[in-house]
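Session log. Operator J.P. requested a structure for one protein chain; no other inputs attached. Running the standard single-chain path with token output.
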Amino acid sequence: MTGFQDRMLRAAKLDVNLYEEVEADTGAIRQAMGVVVLSSIAAGIGSIGTGGLGGILMGTIAALIGWYVWAYITYYIGTKFLPEPQTKADLGELLRTIGFSSSPGLIRVLGIIPGLGAVVFLVASVWMLVAMVIAVRQALDYESTLRAVGVCVIGWIIQALILVLLFFILGGAAKPV
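Structure written below.
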């Protein structure tokens, strides 16, 4: 377990070498999934006042689905639309690096402290976004950080559009009675 904790800490410290390490370690997929689960549980605990206990379970399931969808979208954009000449990646590399980029999300557990929730979640979100850009840059072998930012922004827009579409399809647009 010490190796897992060390990797999470290094990911949160934005250690570029860690992201290269997990990109190459095909056995790190379970660890990456563990980071996503722990981060979502921390978010659930941090927002327990608004989401309740059921929110933790649903949030964890949503986080796992979101992680996979986000990695797939990022992989597709980064390798098909915006590759650099040296870009060579597979979906597993993105799943592992992006999974570890959720490490800073563990601080969201501090959102349970009255008055700190919004600040903690904002800091965690920005920190996780920076980690994700590093993860994408390393997984896609980009030399340009700006290109990695572009891939993340385009992916975020696409994922947001998909979520809005699903919201309307699954009844979010129900008519009031």
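Operator note: The chain has a mean pLDDT of 91.
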